[in-house]
Amino acid sequence: MPRRKLALPGVEKGGRLPYGYQIVVQLVVDEDAAAIVKHIFRRHRTGISLSAIARELNAAGVPSPRAGRQWYAGSVGEIIKHELAYRGGVRGESTERWPAIIEE
Q1: Whole-angstrom Cα distance, residue 31 to residue 21?
Q2: Could you say which of 28, 52, 67, 87 has the lowest number of CB atoms within 10 Å?
Q3: pTM of the complete model
Q4: 59: which residues sit within 8 A by CB, 6+ positions away?
């Protein structure tokens, strides 16, 4: 079934969900992935490069947002780029706020 038909009214209009979220009857935070998102933001705030963060995640065996692939600077950058959504903002055309993953 196409994702658009599975979309929750006012929440997700289709496309790939941001890393750290999953849909279970309602949108909820994936706590395991959310811990990685928090780690990425903490490391980025200390001035660590996106490439270095990706290398750390790969070395630690952390699964990437796309299962079976490695972390790359670009995949880390996509998470950083969506900081407002991870702080509980809206994403795309949705009018609903996403649950906050980062607060600090």
Answers
A1: 8
A2: 67
A3: 0.72
A4: none
85 falls in which pLDDT band (50, 70, 90)? confident
pLDDT in tens, 41-51: 999 999 999 99
| CA 90 – CA 84 distance, rounded (Å) | 8
Residue 71 — pLDDT band, cuts 50, 70, 90?
Answer: very high
User: For 24, which DSSP code?
Assistant: E
Of 20, 19, 73, which is closest to residue 48 (Cα–Cα)? 73
d(CA 64, CA 19): 9
Residue 79: which of 53, 46, 47 has the closest Cα?
53
